Amino acid sequence: MKILFYDTKKYDKESFDMVAPEFPDMEIDYLETDLNKHTARLAAGYDAICAFVSSDVSEAVVNRLGECGVKLILMRCAGFNNVDLKAAAANNITVLRVPGYSPEAVAEHAMALALAVNRRIHKGYIKVRENNFSLIGLTGTNFHGKVAGIVGTGKIGAAMCRICHGFGMKVIAYDMYKNPDLDFVTYVSLDEVLKNSDLISLHCPLLKGTYHMINKDTIAMMKDNVILVNTSRGALIATEDLISGIRSKKFFGVGLDVYEEETNNVFENREDDILETSITARLLSFPNVIVTSHQGFLTKEALAAISETTLTNARDFAAGKVNEANLVK
Ligand code: NAD
Question: What is residue 275's predicted lDDT score, i.e. its pLDDT?
């Protein structure tokens, strides 16, 4: 099977090269450029393409891939909100993903953001580097004894529940499906999570029903001085409403690994660019906001699991079988 790998970063190639010897029938060509309507045609002659969270896998791109004879889209990530599944079905292209490569990697990053923004680590680090040893402005709150509200208790949300429990927090959660492993979690309605939590962490997928689930009405329900963390998908939060909420001092802190309009920024060095939108700049203007660039997945363990599962998906497909759990439809 010939696979064209889009948007290759150094760490992608290293982790795929590490497992490649286990998959001698897979021939991978790595491209630095990402998938879009201009680069889709490069897939002519390939059986499969491998794409990531910021790749453009929209209808026009999928149609182009279909014309090129591509039969398989390998998403090397869990999310698939950027893939036009109707177009994939119409072109008889199978879409496979990596649903749970290392939930702890993302959950640990969510807690890292929560802790950093709570204890103002980002401010303390800069101050000390400038020989400013004053503690003014760095007062945080204890997480121990506080309420963590987890929205979505799938693989990552469950890992976050366990971490918060380990911190001595009372853990409440909202999900349509109760996770039977989480006997220490109290399931409540979404409204109750919003009203009662000191720390809210989002772990549900971006779907029509979850788009802008955090908006001016749901922000108004939250406790004053809440900490909000989003490591899931940017569009779960209506960013303009979030910015208004931050300005009205609703939040003690906000930690974002994902944000709306991140697509052009994610994984790119844009230090010489004039950015097209001001969302990032406005978010970064607040002293109680930390933004990271979709790095929740970035641990050695997660990268190893992503490459192993992606190539297993490809091998299974070539052998005429598909792991239903990894199939996106
Ligand atoms: P998962 O499928 O295991 O769990 C998602 C959970 O959300 C499920 O239990 C589902 O029932 C629940 N859910 C669906 N709609 C909901 C709603 N309206 N309200 C509350 N819960 C709802 O997925 P996961 O592996 O835990 O991943 C969660 C999300 O994390 C992914 O969708 C992806 O967007 C994101 N993610 C981010 C990174 C990163 O690097 N920042 C990495 C991987 C995944």
Answer: 84
